[in-house]
Amino acid sequence: MSLQPLLEKPRGLQLEFLAFVSLEPLLETIVAFANSEGGQIVLGVDEHGRVYGGVSPEHVDDVLQQVAVQVRPPVRVEMSTHELPQGTVVVLRVPRTGELHSLSDGRVLARRGTHNELQIGSRLALLAAGRAAGAFEMEPVPGATLADFDREVVAEYEENRQRRQPLAFVGPTEALLRHIGALTEDGTATVMGVLLFGREPQRFLPQSGLTFVKFAGSEYRGADGRIGYGRREDINGPLPRVIERAWQVVREEMDKRSVVRGLVREEETEYPDTAVREALVNAVAHRDYHIAGRRIEVLMYRDRLEVTSPGGLPGYITLQNILDEHYSRNPRLVNGLWQWGYIEELGLGVNKMFEAMAAAGHPPPEFKATPYAVTVTLRKGHEVGEAVPRSEWQKDMNERQLRALQFVQREGRITNKDYRELCPDVSAETLRLDLVDLVEKGLLLKIGDKKGTYYVLKRKAGKGEGAP
User: What's 393-423 look like in SS3?
Assistant: First the structure.
């Protein structure tokens, strides 16, 4: 695996840099990663990307022996070494497991953004409950074997996995399926394997399908009091096919119109494509498949689109931190969908929904959570083809700043150089102050310093407002 892509990333939910090998920070980070989404620890590099090198693999191996003793239950950490001009750099890969891990002194930590956070009280209870629920995807499905997998779907997965991770595990198909947890050692298919690759997953797990219903009005009953839907479709198959078909059906039913912006003709849809796709993928990836008797529901009304996924919010996720935190109830399913390309970047699906809805002039997505289901509602702020009113957060920004935000939404980040190229007739100092103002408004987040500075969306919604 190449080291350079890691060095170009900022530390975060699944990445930490430690300039020197020190037992306590390593212990805490390994436990925090294992209790969250897993991650990688780069030893010999600091958080600013400066390479110190000089790490001894033998010393790291000795430290890992102590980790094995002081982490309960133990975490299996993989180590790789990289020789750079500055010296040796070591990368530790920490898996996310289905167990709850603690240090020898009883502390339980989880990763929150860029930090390891001690879990106590209700947070610890939620974390423990989430670990127990997440184990279901690895349970064997009685009677299901490799013969129940769709070979075409498996081949498609292998092709996409190889494209996304050229240096990942390679070997015979059956060995790969065991490696990712789709098959047990004795050849029995797991829940995860049936859901991703099964020819007829609903034969084993009837709850794993999706139901789409389109209603004529804003309520499920028509003017005559009867349930007034115009289209209903039950969607079955492995999860990749469920996502594809659900997306196709929703797009068929959305109002669409060609509009001209400047000199470019574009297709405008009733709801932004990105927001709809992310809502569907999130519902499929994060539902609690242990809950029988209810499918994912996609309900389309005249004024809104509702996507309901069975199962409460996973782990430590709440309605208050849903934009800032990430936790997967089904980590292997999520990883499989990421390998497939349905998930572009882990943990950013909700944020992308907010950004897309705001950019299209719609209200921010609404989330409703009960212990048994989570519903996201995409509500229309205007009809297709209508002029888009400015959101509250846009009203006190100049046109240059709006262009900067659009650039970040498109490219993922913006530098001072990018901004100067967008606005070549404006002084560098004025543009710098524009970016400072967007940071102070809470819309952009400044990363790095001096020549390495760049800005990304802060990915938060203000109080009742849709932030981009």
Answer: HHCCCCHHHHHHHHHHHHHCCECHHHHHHHC
What are the tens digits of pLDDT across the range 411-462? 778 998 899 888 887 888 889 899 988 888 878 878 776 667 888 876 443 3
End position of a domain, from candidates 353, 379, 405: 379
Number of domain units in the chain: 4
Share of the chain above pLDDT 90, in %: 43
Q: Which domain holds residue 330?
A: 207-379
Query: Which tokens is 122 given?
Result: 């209700």
CB–CB of 18/32 below 8 Å? no
Note the pLDDT tens digit of each residue in 21-75: 999 999 999 999 998 888 999 999 998 888 998 899 999 999 999 888 899 888 9
Assess if residue 88 is contained within a domain. yes
Distant-in-sequence contacts of 409-414, Cβ < 8 A, 24+ apart: 409/355, 409/359, 409/457, 409/468, 412/456, 413/447, 413/454, 413/455, 413/456, 414/444, 414/454, 414/455
Q: For residue 231, is it within any domain?
A: yes
Residue 451 is classified by DSSP as: G
DSSP labels, 368-391: EEETTEEEEEEE-SS-TTSPPPPP
Structure tokens at 335: 């990883």
Q: In this structure, is the dihedral angle defined by the CA atoms of residues 20, 25, 26 and 32, taken in order, positive or negative? A: negative
- Does 385 map to a domain? no
Residue 116: partners with Cβ closer than 8 Å, 6 or more residues away: 28, 29, 31, 32, 109, 110
Same domain, 322 and 272: yes
